[in-house]
Amino acid sequence: MKRLLVFHTSSGVINANWWPKGTPAAYDLMGTSLEPLNPFKSDINIIRGLTGHHNQWDAHSSGLVNLMTGFPVLNEKCDNNTCDTIQENKFARAASFDQILAEKWKGKTAVPSLVLGILPKRERPSAYLSYGADGRYIPQARDPYTVFKTLFRDILKCTAGGKDDDQKLALLKTRRKSILDAISGDLKDVARISQLSAPEVAKFNLYVDSVRQMEANLNNMGGEEGVQVACTTLKHFLSEPAIPVNDTNYPKVARMMMDLIVAAFQMDITRIATVTWSVGGADGVPSSWANFNGKPIQESYHALSHGMVDPTNWREKLTILDRYHAGEFAYIIGKLKESTVGNSNILDNSLALWASEISDGNTHSSFNLPIVLAGKAGGAIKSGKFIELSPGDAQPLFPHQNLMVSMMQALGQTSFTSWGDTKFTQGRAVNTGVKLT
Questions:
Q1: Which of the ends of the chain has fewer CB neighbours closer than 10 A, N or C?
Q2: For 255-397, where are the E strands, in sequence order?
Q3: Do the beta carbons of residue 407 and residue 353 sit within 8 Å?
Q4: How many helical (H) and strand (E) elements, i.e. helices and strands, does the chain have?
Q5: Distance, C-alpha 137 to centroid of its chain
Q6: pLDDT tens digit string along 185-242?
Q7: Whole-angstrom Cα distance, residue 143 to residue 237?
Q8: pLDDT band (50, 70, 90) for residue 160
Q9: Tens digits of residue pLDDT in 96-122
Q10: Which pLDDT does position 162 carry in this prediction?
Q11: What are the phi and psi torsion angles at 371 (to 5°)?
Q12: Rounded Cα distance, 315 and 296, in Å
């Protein structure tokens, strides 16, 4: 069973400190912002030379919509400086990459995709990763405790154990089954009484079947082994006092979100998860929990990226935060690698993409997007490489759409050969794939 994780951090990186040292033939992560990923060097591909496109509109909002949909932001209601005023939640021109895959895998899990956001402070397109086919964003879950209660509390047997928990789980399944039976019966009565046409009856039957499939997914998710592993992953939700979901606790809240994704994959509740860290642009990732020269970093990531708030130390401060994000990506892929599935593990059977909507927060450049791809997609991808598509700092000729095509094919969608709108790629080669085998 393959899985997809998209891990987005905003406002680019300090490129001079982020990319590997050396050449693709002999590269080194030590001393770079990616050093926390060194233990997983054989599990990741670092890809340099992909470019995004944010048109003339806000680099963060349009860049992120483009990253996930292959199109710049829907800009009819944008002005020349911002896209924050778009109404009706309709920011995109097409479904996002993760939601296309969720539609392909529909019915395989109880939750089609898990969409999480870590403490965004502003409502704007750069807060959202996931979009439906109608262009509207998929609402995020932003409180880890709510996610835990919704998805896990009633099916995890982590407390006292024994017959009491077994009985509670059986009661939950019985109650769920009775509700689903009632829904199915009502639908059949409607189809009979309304004298529907044959095509309409077929649609009703298809819906009834989907309801029954939902029941099977809910009852079967989290087999005994998966439940027990997830208990270990989520034990702090059961044993530790709740903490406020605020800037001060940003790292703790983020770590809880990582654990929720891991547990959802372990129990096969979902096979697709996206998480965006705060929001791109103004009021982005808070930094006061991190220290520079023994003192808290008071400026936000975005404010620092423009250099003006601390002309002397802004690069050093941002490198600390870049390294932190690398450590969190290392944490989650490490947890997925520890989670065994038969003779393999979840990471080897998955793809986990870490990316930003731009490459440089100061210039808003979208050349050489920072990209790390972890996992092997069940053997479809060969990992352990530093792939440099364009030499040095040359402006790359490879739209990031090429990577998404390769990823979708590696996840089993071999007929997926085109994604995004080529007219926004300035005539560059697109949808030819990035060689990852």
A1: C
A2: 272-277, 291-292, 295-296, 340-341, 344-345, 350-355, 371-374, 385-388
A3: yes
A4: 12, 15
A5: 14
A6: 665 666 566 666 666 666 556 555 655 555 555 454 445 567 778 888 888 888 889 9
A7: 12
A8: very low
A9: 999 999 999 998 888 999 999 998 877
A10: 42
A11: -130, 125
A12: 15
- C-alpha to C-alpha distance for 115 and 270, rounded to whole angstroms: 11
Q: Which residue has the tokens 């050396």?
A: 22
Q: What is the mean pLDDT of the chain?
A: 82
pLDDT tens track for 322-341: 999 999 999 999 999 999 87
CA distance linking residue 71 with residue 74, whole number of Å: 8
Q: Which residues pair with 371 in a beta bridge?
A: 47, 355
Token digits of residue 105: 């895998």
The residue among 354, 404, 400 whose CA lies nearest residue 6 is 354
Q: For tokens 């020349």, name the residue.
A: 80
Place of tokens 């290392």: 330
Distance CA 165, CA 228 (A): 13
For residues 130 and 107, what is the distance between their CA atoms, to the nearest angstrom? 19
Burial of 318 (0-12, 13-18, 19+ CB in 10 A): buried
Q: What tokens appear for 371 in the block?
A: 């990209």
> Cα 131 to chain center, whole Å?
12
Q: Helix-strand-coil percent breakdown of the chain, rounded to 5?
A: 40, 15, 45
**pLDDT for res 330:** 98
Report whether 230 contacts 263 (CB < 8 A). yes
Distance from C-alpha of 339 to C-alpha of 253, rounded to nearest angstrom = 22
Whether the Cβ atoms of residue 250 and residue 321 lie closer than 8 Å to each other: no
SS3 373: strand
Q: State residue 421's pLDDT score.
A: 74
Q: Which two tokens stand for residue 51?
A: 């470019």
Give the pLDDT confidence of 371-380 residue by residue, as tens digits.
Answer: 999 999 999 9
Average pLDDT, stretch 8-33?
95
Note the pLDDT of residue 16.
94
